[in-house]
Amino acid sequence: MFSLTKHVTWPLVSVLAVLATAAGALPAYADPTEVKLNEETTIGGIGVACTGVGQSRNQPQWLTYPLKLVFADPNGLLLADVTVSLTDAKGAQVLQMHCGGPWVLLKLPPGKTFKAEGRLAQTGTAPRTSTVRAPAHGQATVVFTFPDAKA
Prior knowledge:
Elements: H1 4-7, H2 10-25, E1 33-35, E2 39-43, E3 46-51, E4 67-72, E5 82-87, E6 93-99, E7 103-107, E8 113-120, E9 128-133, E10 140-145
């Protein structure tokens, strides 16, 4: 019969307790919010949309979003099926979403800086990050280029 008390020392128990406490202190991120193609929603107080495919990408409502994130390969071919995370200047995550299209539109407050991270669902591609800021007027476009994406 195996006796736990014979094989586990108190220093090991202390280390395990510290690790368990530290792991509990790490932020737990929920699964990304699914935003369907050509739909709009609000996540964490930020208006978001997912589009970029077919004629629907030319809808006038998309121009009301001050920031457009575009996902592409080095040749400019659009890449779909992306997860976007957005953190504020303090590093707090303000949204995490999944989009089946190649464009993510964001209604960010002008003048505030955020860090955006894009991840393709395609295996073997590294995430890309960029500092983003919504302009006071018009729409800014930020292109995330994935050099390791497969066409």
